Fold:
Amino acid sequence: KNQVEQSPQSLIILEGKNCTLQCNYTVSPFSNLRWYKQDTGRGPVSLTIMTFSENTKSNGRYTATLDADTKQSSLHITASQLSDSASYICVVSGGVGYIPTFGRGTSLIVHP
Amino acid sequence: EAQVTQNPRYLITVTGKKLTVTCSQNMNHEYMSWYRQDPGLGLRQIYYSMNVEVTDKGDVPEGYKVSRKEKRNFPLILESPSPNQTSLYFCASSPTQTGNYGYTFGSGTRLTVV
Structure:
C-alpha cells in the first residue's frame, strides 16, 4: 500500500531560526512530490512540485529536496517568520491513475 | 482570479437530510477531486473526476456521490448524512490527472451533522 510518512508530527521554533521537515514515501512508480502549506481552517497552498528528475526546488525561503533513490524528501525553511506557522503537507502521486497519497502533515509553530 | 470556489463555507445539518456542497473552478482544469480532513488523519480522497462524465472512487467514497456534467462544476452530494461525516471538506482541481502542475484547493466547507 502506498504510504507517505512525515516527521516530526509537530515542531516549535523561534522566529528567525531555520528548520527542516521530513517526508518518506513508498509510492511506486513515482510521478511527482508536492509540498503544501495549510493555514488553520484554510485550503492547502502549493509550495513546490518536483518530478523524478528534480532533486531541489526553491520557492523564496522554502527549499525542497528529493532523493528518489531513498524515497525521501525534505522541506527546509530559512529564517522563519511568524506567518510560517501552519501545517505542511507532503503529497506523492504515482501508480495507476496517479492517485495522490497525502502525508498527515507537520504542524509548525513559530514563536516570537 | 483563478480559483476554486466552494459553497457553503459552514453547514450544520441533521442526520438524514440530503445536502449538496458545490465546487466550481474557472481555470478550465480537467481534473477535480474531493477530500475530507479529520484531526490526526490528514486529507483523504473521496471522489475524483478526470473529465466531464468521468468520475471514480477515492479512498473513502462511502456515503457520498458526485457528478461532473460540466467541466467547471463538481458537486459533492450526501444523500443521507450521518454524524461520522462531520468533517472539513476540500475541493481541488488540476490541469491534468498527474498532478505535475499541482492542485488548487478551495477554501473548505466545515460540515457538522447532528
Remarks:
- Chain A has no helices and eleven strands.
- The first strand of chain A starts at residue 4 and ends at 7.
- Chain A touches chain B at residues 31-32, 34, 41-46, 49, 51, 89, 91, 93, 97-100, 102-105 (CB under 8 Å).
